[in-house]
Amino acid sequence: MAQETRESRDTRTTFGPAHQMTAPTAELLRQLVAHLRQNRTQLREEWARRITEAKLLTAMTKEEIFAEATSVYDNYVEALETGTFEALQAYARNLSERIIPRGVETHEVVGIVLLLRDVLARSLFAKYQNDFALLNRILDAYEPAANRIANTVAVGFVQERERVIREQQEAIRVLSTPVLQVRERLLILPIIGVIDPQRARQLTEQLLRGIRTNRAKVVVIDITGVPVMDANVANNLVQTVEATRLLGATVIITGLSPEIAQTLVTIGVDLGKMNTVGDLQGGIEEAERLLGYKVVPFTEKAEHA
Amino acid sequence: MEVPILKQGPYLIASIQSALSDADLVQLRDALVEQVGRLRSRGVIVDVTALDVMDSFATRTLRDITFMIRLRGAETVIVGIQPDVAFTMVQLGLKLEGVPTALDLEEGIAFLGKKDTSPAKEASPRGR
Question: ipTM beyond 0.90?
Fold first, then answer.
């Protein structure tokens, strides 16, 4: 690479006033990179050994760790050499995409990058131990770059993880609120999973719209699939029931588990005005009664006829 | 703006067409309470379909209308509250307790009809 491009890049990636990347620093970095390239095999092995020793990346096999370690090492050295982090960022994102589904934790990823930093720093100590001044200057060049690399990888990993979480939340949100008509003027709303304020709001809006479009008179809300309920969620539920009443419909709540019943009584939420029935079947039967339906088995019907 | 009150058989229908000032609401209340006796009506329907806001004064006035008319021997039902309005009202704690509500005019008439034919039994689902 030509000296000029190197310098223009260096000025782009300064690390604060204390570490202006002057020509000597660039020269030191080049020395450093040459050293890391020369000892690639040995340092890489040392690093993989330290990873295993520290019991990191336990979700991966030894071979996988070594393969990943190799590419991380090469990317690391390249980032040191060029002073640009785009390639490394892309690599970190790609790596995260592959390893997050396998259950690799944030501390492990940060851990291995910091381990590599230590391994490389140590090899620098070993190489320059006789010239303390030079060692200092080498570390001055190395440390900011290494820190920034660690930072880049960690941030990339966390961002990827957050993206996955966001996607999953969105998927849950889309899946979570079906308003179903089971009979003329009778809707059921099965709620599965945890209710947060945002979801409660969405549930209510969707239910109210459903009542209007289906001209529903009775709504059965089944909360068998709701694991826990706190005061907030209970109040949201009360609000939903009241809003439904304002539209002229009646709500029947079914499937309150013993735990939830206990919690609600303990925290003193007023569910007195709510119409609750043990299970969904009972709720639908009660709703049919309110609507004036009578479900009769065929045989009985024949006898009556 | 004055709210027109229509007589439809044994019922009075007040259809609110636009946002009302507090004075209009009071005027509506007085007119309904007066006419329900004069016309010997058995039920009153207040249609709020056109309203996209319901403040605390409006809510209280609707409640007052219901209770006053009940004292005059007739039943009131509020119809046509929009989903968004209902949600906002509940969040503001405006609950219209003790006031019967129905989806729309048709439902309101059906509700009053049911009340009318079986006043003794109280068999309505919303006899709360």
Answer: no
